[in-house]
């Protein structure tokens, strides 16, 4: 192609990419706006019709259950020696009840984690160390199935069943009243999910910080409305309790393995399986007497590579494999929620196209300034699309900033706006990795546990950690 034809070709390509991205953004923006409107209506109705007549309850004011319900906490662990000991010791220190047991799954070729669990469990019968049959890593679901087998053997030996199985990761900071809330609600639902709170890390305000922005809106709005609409509740994989009877019924249909080892997002799928149809899921947002949320806190990945790896697993499991594995339902509410779950990968592709168009726009403007090239005019239709998307973008940034402000304060709310670019770049890089995983899965490649590095506060600081949404944390 002659040099005098390159710039017109790039100009044409820039307009086409802008048009495609603008149409994709408009569809997504209308979906988000409708969801926001329904959430605002739900929130106003609760404020006017419920909270104006009844006092808000705290977890301490809940009526005690008629009989103590035993809780089993499952903690799958692969290469978690730096964090698992502190996490287990904190649980033992803050839970005075005897109605629980922590099942920790380790691998024969992970001696460091086994030693850390053994050291933390010294002098306590609350922790049960379970060694998987094969060397790790397999998958998290495979490890959870080993824990399920150990629990079933214990129930037969003790002639007493547990009421619920609670999932946690080795780096979780668990609220002291979480077991109380689970015990109160588990008899009313197949799944109880608590909010997840990413803790702020000073040394990774941009990469780790974007998780806080996303979860502030995800667990402050999306899960709340999802439950209100009567749609199934996906499990976050941590801070969630499954009714033991519901898991038993599922295990009876899956050769005794309730957790699907072929899935990269077994927790998400399990939640949809258990809370679809007549079963119910509860997203429990409740404060304690100090005004802090009863929630699960943890430090999310601080490095770009770890964040991309984690996000790619979520995208591959939910947006791509989930489409094949879970399909669609006969309910518009359910299909709408599943569509929203699965649109992340497609949104990332549209964002990549939009960023390419922005780069081309910069190059064309530079060519016009240096060489006198005259850009082709933008069509009236594309101008309207750009203006509409600009307005929707401002609305989206404002809504997200409001949720971040309610949890982390003004500074983080302001930072959430430029941090959107960081989140977009991470999602764009993650989607290509997710596509690679998905293609490999279609080719018969087995799923494997992709490890991300974790952080847990030092033991001497554990008692000082506040179970709340705090703005400044360990760095």
List keywords for this structure.
single chain; 475 residues; alpha/beta; Spore Coat Polysaccharide Biosynthesis Protein SpsA, Chain A; 2 domains; 7-stranded mixed β-sheet; 3-stranded mixed β-sheet; 12 helices; 55% helix; 8% strand; globular; disordered C terminus
Largest sheet, in brief, is:
7 strands, mixed
Helical content band: 55-70%
Number of strand segments: 10
CATH homologous superfamily classification of the largest domain? Spore Coat Polysaccharide Biosynthesis Protein SpsA, Chain A
CATH architecture assignment name of the largest domain: Alpha-Beta Complex
Number of domains: 2
* Uncertain stretches of 5 or more adjacent residues: 459-475
Structural class, by secondary structure, is alpha/beta
Radius of gyration: 24 Å
Proportion of residues in β-strands: 5-15%
Per DSSP, the total helix count is 12
- Look at the structure and give the CATH class of the largest domain: Alpha Beta
Kindly report the average pLDDT value.
88
Order of strands across the main sheet: 3-2-1-4-8-6-9
Shape: globular
CATH topology of the largest domain: Spore Coat Polysaccharide Biosynthesis Protein SpsA, Chain A
SSE series: HEHEHEHEEHEEHEHHEEHHHH
Q: What is the rounded distance between the termini?
A: 54 Å
């Amino acid at each position: 192609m002659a040099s005098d034809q390159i710039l017109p070709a790039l100009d044409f390509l820039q307009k086409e990419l802008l048009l495609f991205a603008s149409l994709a953004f408009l569809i997504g923006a209308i979906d988000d706006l409708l969801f926001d409107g329904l959430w605002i209506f739900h929130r106003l109705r609760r404020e006017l019709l419920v909270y104006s007549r009844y006092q808000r309850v705290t977890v301490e004011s809940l009526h005690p259950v008629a009989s103590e319900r035993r809780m089993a906490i499952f903690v799958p662990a692969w290469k978690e020696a730096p964090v698992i000991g502190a996490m287990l010791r904190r649980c033992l220190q803050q839970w005075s009840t005897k109605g629980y047991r922590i099942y920790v799954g380790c691998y024969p070729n992970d001696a460091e984690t086994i030693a850390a669990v053994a050291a933390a469990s010294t002098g306590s019968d609350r922790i049960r160390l379970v060694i998987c049959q094969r060397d790790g890593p397999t998958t998290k679901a495979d490890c959870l199935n080993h824990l399920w087998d150990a629990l079933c053997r214990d129930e037969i030996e003790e002639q007493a069943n547990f009421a619920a199985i609670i999932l946690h990761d080795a780096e979780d900071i668990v609220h002291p009243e979480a077991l109380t809330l689970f015990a109160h609600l588990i008899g009313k639902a197949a799944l109880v999910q608590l909010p997840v709170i990413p803790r702020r890390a000073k040394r990774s305000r941009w990469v780790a910080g974007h998780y806080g922005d996303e979860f502030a809106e995800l667990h402050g709005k999306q899960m709340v409305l999802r439950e209100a609409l009567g749609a199934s509740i996906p499990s976050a994989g941590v801070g969630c309790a499954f009714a033991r009877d519901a898991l038993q019924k599922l295990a009876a249909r899956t050769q005794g393995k309730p957790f699907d080892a072929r899935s990269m997002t077994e927790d998400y799928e399990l939640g949809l399986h258990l809370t679809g149809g007549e079963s119910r899921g509860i997203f429990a947002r409740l404060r304690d007497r100090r005004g802090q949320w009863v929630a699960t806190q943890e430090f999310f990945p601080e490095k770009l590579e770890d964040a991309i790896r984690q996000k790619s697993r979520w995208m591959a499991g939910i947006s791509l494999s989930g489409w094949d594995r879970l399909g669609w339902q006969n309910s518009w509410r359910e299909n709408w929620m599943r569509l929203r779950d699965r649109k992340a990968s497609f949104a990332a592709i549209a964002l990549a196209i939009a960023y390419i168009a922005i780069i081309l726009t910069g190059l064309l403007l530079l060519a016009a300034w240096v060489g006198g090239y005259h850009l082709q005019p933008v069509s009236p239709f594309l101008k309207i699309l750009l203006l509409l998307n600009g307005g929707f973008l401002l609305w989206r940034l404002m809504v997200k900033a409001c949720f971040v402000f309610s949890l982390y304060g003004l500074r983080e709310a302001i930072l959430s706006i430029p941090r959107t670019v960081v989140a977009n770049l991470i999602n764009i890089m993650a989607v290509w990795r997710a596509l690679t995983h998905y293609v490999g899965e279609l080719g018969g490649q087995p799923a494997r546990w992709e490890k991300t590095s974790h952080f847990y506060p030092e033991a001497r600081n554990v008692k000082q950690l506040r179970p709340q949404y705090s703005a400044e944390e360990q760095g």
